[in-house]
Amino acid sequence: MAETETPIRLLLVEDDQVDRQALQRHFASSGQAYELTCAVNGAEAREKLGTGDHDVVLLDYQLGDATGLELLPLAGDIPAIFITGMGNEEVAVKAIQMGAYDYIVKDGKRHYLTVLPLIIRNVLSRKAFERSLQESQRQLRTLMGNLPGMAYRSQPGTSKLEFASDGAFALTGYTAAELTSDSFKAERLVPEDFAAMRRESQVAVAAQQPFQITYRIRHRNGEERWVLDQGAGVFGEDGALLGLEGLVVDISDRVHAERGLQRARDEAQAATRLKDKFVSLVAHDLRAPISTVKTMAELIGSEPGSPLNATQQALQNATVERCDAILHMIDELLKVSRLQTGNIRLHQRYFGPEPIRQVARHLHPLARRKGIALETRLPKDFRIFADLTLYSEVVQNLISNALKFCGAGDRVELIVPEGKPTTLAVRDTGPGVQPEFIPNLFRHDVKTSLRGSDGETGFGFGLPLCQDILVAHRGRIWLESTPGQGTTFFVELPTERPRVLLVEGEQIEQDELTALLRHLGYEALTVENAESGLAMAQREHPHLVIAAAPVTAESAEAYLHSLRNEGPASQVPLVLVLDQEQRTLRDELFRLGAEDFLMRPVDETQLSLLLRTHLG
Question: Could you give the CA distance from residue 161 to residue 182 in angstroms, rounded to a whole number?
């Protein structure tokens, strides 16, 4: 016997001394680990069964003061093996019916002793399996009880439930027993949506796919509830459908919240449309009379030999300036309104530093007048993908703001921060921004405009407008400022690797151009014809289209129209690749929408120059 082997604890209830001693000798000499306790009558058996310190009970039928059948219920959870004499098989069968795990019949030559250890091992294995099964069932009941809904199994081809978890009552008002009874029909639970729910589940099961179905159920109290049914078919080895299993959860709160959110969204959109219409109408009604006042004031001041004295001339100049300011405010209001309502469509393209330098050059006269140094220090390879008009609006606003608050001797710089290739920073040495103002600078509903260093005023629309423009570009704007030391505004755009759509049917030409594009650092998307090019453009949104030109002018119009079809490619620069003999088509192709040309054979120098022209 191994030292680590745990002995099997046996309780032997046997009043016959000869049989008892025979069993004791057999267990002692078996070579297996047994710990044997004996009881010689019913009273002693009752006492020892009460302790529960046994793995198996060996129970004789005739005990003098009791029978084994009378003692069997006292074994409780301990597996019992019933021992009977010859001819007592009926008693053994009754013992099995009462809960005994097995029985063995005594024979005169005591051959039963040889079989008994095997029966004991089988009984213990069965008991261990039962305990494992009970634990699994306990865990399953715990899981089912904590599920946020009702787990179920239904019969194939019917609405009859074979199983429903305890969550059924909270979900439906019916107990699991009621739902699985033969008299209950699912149509009672799903009166309105039963046909649609059944149809959707059958389609999924036929394809052997799981399903997710949303439908309404009728609670026992008459209340309508929305549920999500997630399930799947269960199939046998032969592919036959055995049933449906799934989980039904109450999603009424989510459905009502989504509907409430949709109503709120619809109301907000309606209010936004009304506001946009109101802003447009007011702006239109204001613009005309203000423009008239401005024109009349300018005419008065421009008359040769004007009789206006110095005071009147100052008033006339102030009138023109105020009219300009109000017209500018109207334009800003309209831009904000269009951006917020999505009525401005971005026309994004790649460009380098030159357009930004151009914006700064326009503001140099103002900087010189105030004695401020305005410098643009952008690297030659600076390149961003944006709507040039709107991005220029952001740059102009930020430079104007910096000049507004800076004074003589200050400096304003446009730089690209290290490690941020798509970020532009406008840095100044002005008075800085007080910390309490910063959270509200980009809000439309809070007026944060202050007087500039020369008393300049504003309407507070500039920075909120910049924020809206950056959001439309999926970018962001923020600032860092130290009072008394200056402010830096950062404008960051997403990094975009240039994608070139190559429409070329000749495989050799396609491979050569693809290799050149990748060598120059561009992503190449290749297709063989215009139809495939449109599909690719819908998916990938290229920044430039390079396409083989049609052979004749007659085929050019339909070809370019297909490439210029409404969609992502309609605003993308279109470059056509021409053979030398197609030079005569250039004017016609320009008229039809081509923006540039490449001549075969295309080399790296020609392609690189064209890409810099159109992609920055």
Answer: 9
Which helix or strand (DSSP H or E) is residue 43 part of? helix 42-49
Sheet holding 423-428, edge to edge: 373-377, 411-415, 423-428, 486-492, 476-482
Report in angstroms the alpha-carbon separations of 497 from 259, 384, 521, 578.
40, 10, 9, 27
Written as one letter, the residue type at 443 is R
What is the rounded distance in angstroms from the CA atom of residue 60 to the CA atom of residue 20? 10
> Where does the pLDDT of residue 338 fall: very low under 50, low under 70, confident under 90, or very high at 90 and above?
low
pTM: 0.47
Q: For 346, list phi and psi in degrees, rounded to 5.
A: -75, 135
Residue type, 605: T
In the sheet with 34-39, reading across from the earlier edge strand, the strands are 34-39, 8-13, 56-60, 80-84, 102-105
Helix (H, G, I), strand (E, B) or coil at 229: strand
Quote the strand ranges of 267-382, DSSP E. 348-351, 373-377
- Cβ neighbours around 511 below 10 Å, total: 12
CA-nearest of 2, 34, 19 to 120 is: 34
For CA atoms 431, 436, 440, 442, give the dihedral sign: positive
Question: Which residue in the block uniquely carries the two structure tokens 């005594």?
Answer: 106
Predicted confidence (pLDDT) at residue 2 exceeds the cutoff of 70: no
In terms of DSSP bridges, do strands 423-428 and 411-415 run parallel, antiparallel, or are they unpaired? antiparallel
The better pLDDT of the pair 245, 265 is held by 245
Distance CA(353)–CA(355), nearest Å, equals: 6
How many Cβ atoms from other residues are within 10 Å of residue 250's Cβ? 20
Work out the average pLDDT over 249-273. 83
- Of the two residues 300 and 38, the one the predictor is more confident about is 38
Closest CA to 10 of 70, 81, 64, 73: 81
Residue 604 makes CB contacts below 8 A (sequence gap 6+) with 516, 519, 520
**What local confidence, expressed as pLDDT, does residue 1 receive?**
43
- Cα distance between residue 217 and residue 365, in whole Å: 73
Strands 211-218 and 224-235: antiparallel
Other C-beta atoms within 10 Å of 465: how many? 22
Closest CA to 59 of 90, 99, 111, 27: 99
Mean pLDDT lowest among 63-77, 202-216, 306-320: 306-320
Helix or strand or coil: residue 297? helix
Residue 428 pLDDT > 80:
yes
* Bigger pLDDT: 124 vs 332: 124
Structure tokens at 380: 């030659």
Mean residue pLDDT of the chain comes to: 82
Q: Which residue type, as a one-letter code, is found at position 522?
A: Y
What are the tens digits of pLDDT across the range 466-520?
888 888 888 999 999 999 899 999 999 998 888 888 888 788 888 888 888 888 8
* 263 class by beta-carbon count within 10 Å (0-12 exposed, 13-18 middle, 19+ buried): exposed
Q: Tell me what the mean pLDDT of segment 307-311 comes to.
A: 75
**Three-state DSSP string of 134-178:** HHHHHHHHHHHHHCCCEEEEECCCCCCEEEECCCHHHHHCCCHHH
